[in-house]
Amino acid sequence: MSGSPPLLAVEKATSEASGRLWELVSDLVAGKLGEREASAELDESMEAPLEIIFEVTEAAEGGFDARALGHSIFTQGEDWADLKAMVRDAVLCHFGDRGRQRIVRLHFVKDEAIAV
Fold first, then answer.
1. Residues whose CB falls within 8 Å of the CB of residue 20, separated by 6 or more in sequence, listed in order
2. What's the DSSP call for residue 3?
3. Contact criterion met (CB below 8 Å) for 60 and 47
4. What does 21-87 look like in DSSP terms, one character per residue?
5. Which pTM was predicted?
6. DSSP label at 16?
7. Which stretch of DSSP H or E encloses residue 107?
8. What's the half-sphere exposure (Cβ side, CA atoms, 13 Å) at 87?
9. Which has more pLDDT, 96 or 18?
10. Which end of the chain is more exposed for a tag (fewer CB within 10 A), N or C?
11. What distances in angstroms separate CA 110 from CA 2, 56, 70, one per listed residue?
């Protein structure tokens, strides 16, 4: 569905990343940046993915545990609203301002065995 807020955020972030890439290439070709500087800036700008998926499980002691898939980000929340706030904070702490234009998905997993 085009035009929804999450898709608009992804489109904006993709457009900004693409523009920054061309800016770095232009500066490199023009001699304004050395290869090391351009490489370091490119690594920094590409470090935060557009979408981060957290696997959420119920904590044994109550509340929820969340871990980001593919990243070393872990957090907990006493309830769903608290968990969302803690996930936002964890992403911003991990990626800094580069985390602001990202979409975070919370994937709730309930592991339950039933007798048949």
1. 45
2. T
3. no
4. HHHHHHHHHTTSS-HHHHHHHHHHHHSS-SEEEEEEEE-TTSSEEEEETTS--EEEESSHHHHHHHH
5. 0.58
6. H
7. strand 103-108
8. 26
9. 96
10. C
11. 31, 9, 20
